[in-house]
Amino acid sequence: MNEQLTMTERLKAKVRRAGAKGRPASELDARDDVDHATGRMTWKQIVVDRENGRYREQATYRDTSEFVFPPKDELLSEHRGRGSAKSKK
């Protein structure tokens, strides 16, 4: 019997301003992930900065630190059609 245990890392954080209601002012999600095209481990970081209206995302391969795709830094208002921004059917 062959068994394999793989441990991964994940960091999630939310910033809320005192007395503010609704969504957090900013959110961070940084985690180990797998690039399904290559099967290689990646480190993926997503930052949603609602105070400044920015969306940032980048992923690098764990073994070489090369970017999986060009880093994204765009206006939050223009971030549509991907991930949780996809329209519901």
Instruction: Please tell me the total number of domains.
Output: 1
Low-confidence stretches: none
Lateral strand order in the biggest sheet:
1-2-3-4-5
Largest sheet: 5 strands, antiparallel
Descriptive account of the structure:
- The chain is mainly beta and 89 residues long.
- It has one domain.
- The chain has strands at residues 10-15, 26-35, 40-49, 54-61, 72-75.
- A five-stranded antiparallel β-sheet has the order 1-2-3-4-5, with no helix packed on it.
- The chain is globular and about 55 Å long.
- The termini are far apart.
- The model has no long low-confidence stretch (mean pLDDT 89).
Brief descriptors of the model:
single chain, 89 residues, mainly beta, 0% helix
Short structural description:
By secondary structure, the chain is mostly beta strands. It contains no helices and five strands.
